[in-house]
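Chapter review: from sequence to fold.
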Amino acid sequence: MALANISGENRRTKSILFLICCALVGIFPHLIEPSKSLFPSITLAILLGGYGLRVVLRDRRDNYQLQKEYLVKDENFVETLPKVDVLVAARDEENVIERLVSRLLLIEYPEDKLAIWIIDDGSQDGTSDLLQELRKNFSRINVLSRPLMSGGGKSGALNSVLSKTDGEWLFILDADAQLQSNVLLRAISFALNGGWCGVQLRKSVVNCELNQLAAYQAMEMAMDAVIQRGRLALGGVSELRGNGQLINRKVLESCGGFNEKTITDDLDLSFRFLLTRSPIAIMWDPPIQEEAVESIPALFRQRKRWAEGGLQRFFDYWPLLISKRLTNFKKIDLSCFFLLQYVLPVVSLIDLIVSIVLFETPLYWPLSIVALGISSLAFWKGCSQNSEGPRLPSPNFINILGATIYLSHWFIVIPFVVFKMSLFRKTLLWEKTDHIGF
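The token string follows.
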């Protein structure tokens, strides 16, 4: 099966089957004798919790870290740098687009080897006018405009510019990205030195002091980086996160480009890289800075899109994920985190509903507690590390407890998305996160 031919068909049917399986797993312990009813949950807690603990403990500060002296070891280093295209897909970004351009122009990289492209994807606010004005003032900025409803979402916008660029590497940013001037040099050095096909910069929150919700998002991003580096160190799977991703163009082309049938281009592309045996690494410093969403409704809109895109890729690629393209350990790693990220929230909800109907105690609480406990450890480890960029929240007991409670929103989002995917056909729209400008 060619990756370019993945069409995303029958997602609704697959979602229904997934929901039925989760329902059966959630109901099953209530049908066996009480003395054995906790056995399924405890068994999964030991197996999945044990693997999750290994992942968090395996993360090291020096894992996949660029040695700073590498930049000056070779006097001809600058001359041998590859050509890079910086790509930004923007829609309705008048609040942040001028700041972004000013930062892009400060990137430390040979000008003859750097091209900056901003794709205006049918903006209806003042973004188009601002970009045209910026283009007149700064000749290094290239602007490609697409009509509204051109299709393909962010993936379509990125694909539209590929034929106009020729860089060996693509550095993809969101419109709210804030970055250090030397970030590209360091990321390219890291990729070339380590033989990586993709590099994802750790994401950090620029407005983490805005409110407690933003602080918890900052902690969540640090936790995510810890878990990803730990999975990679064990021989598992690491993923792209959209903003701040550096990818090899040849690998992208071998994957068929960006998938226009998905709502999360980064998660989908992660699987395409995985299936072509193209390794992705996570770089802790320097981070890519972005805005956290400011309110609970905005958070749920964002997370519903992430959850749906995450499930879509498993539904689309599962025949290849269980094929010989992946090592057995990568299959185990994917299985463990699929169960923890997507199955556990749905099963827990079914378990709760059955418990209420039967006036019984929920039976999957041991697995949920273990999963949240491991997340708490990852919160502590991530926020305890030194980091460039915005200061991470203190890993004290109150913050970790609050972040762990905050993380339980996935137990609402994932089941909601599964039910939605099972009941309604998906219309592919670019449901972007609004950026205020900090």
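Two observations follow directly from the output. The first strand starts at residue 84 and ends at 90. The mean pLDDT is 90.
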